[in-house]
Amino acid sequence: MKNFKLFSAILALLISVSFSEAQNQNCPVIPQPVKAVKKEGAFLLNRYTSIRISGESLAGVAAYLQYELLADKRLPLSIGNITGTPAINISISRSGKSPAEGYRLNISKERIDITAGSEKGAFYGVISLLQLIKTQDSSELIKIPAWNIEDKPLYTWRGLMLDESRHFFGKATVKKLLDWMAFYKLNTFHWHLTDEPGWRIEIKQYPLLTLVGGIGNYTDKFGAAQYYTQEDIKEIVDYAAKRFITIIPEIDMPGHATAANRAYPQYTGGGNDKHPNFTFNPGNASTYLFLSNILREVNALFPARMLHVGGDEVSFGNDKWLADIGVQRLLEKKKLKDVKGVERYFMERMADSIYNMNAKMLAWDEVADMNLDKNKTILFWWRHDQPRQLTKALSKKYDIVLCPRLPFYFDFVQDSTHTLGRKWGEEYNSLEHVYNFNINKIQQISASNRQQILGIQANLWTETIKDEKRLCYMIFPRIAALAETAWTDAGNKSFSDFKANLEKQYRLYSEQQINFYQAAN
Ligand code: TNX
Question: What is the pTM of this model?
Answer without folding.
Answer: 0.94
